[in-house]
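Notebook entry, structure prediction.
Reason for the run: the old model in the group folder had no record of what sequence produced it. Starting over properly, with the input documented here first.
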Amino acid sequence: MRKKKAILSILLALCLAAAMMPMSAYAAEDVSNDIVVIYTGDMHGAVDSNITLAGLKAYANERQAKSRYLEIDAGDALSGNAIANASGGKFVVEAMNEVGYGIAVPGVHDFDFGVTTLTDELASLAKFQYVSCNFADIETGRTVFKPYEIVT
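New structure, fully documented this time:
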């Protein structure tokens, strides 16, 4: 009887310990098939506010280890605070490059430094791709940036 109680106690202790372990302990370490889209919008140059781009980079690194991910900016990133404005948006593009953005859509305030500054300088500096289906060259009617991107 005593032996049965000891075995039962050990068995219950093991069950309790197993129940308290996080589910990730049981999961395989392989990358999942999940696709995670991390996006920002209306940053207005505030790369050091809220979660900050450094925090976003840390989160992206964590997600990259577990799933496929893509970082997208929905516009209005390049101007709006002293650092962004003093650098003509270059500081923000460089910060976005460090984070690993894949795609950005220009917003109205991304043109604050001029159309050619965005299209010639900042877009060239970017390691990510700008896409826009409604920003066209008046003379040719062609979109200035690729109108869309399919990511697989």
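Summary: The first strand starts at residue 35 and ends at 40.
The old model has been moved to the deprecated folder.
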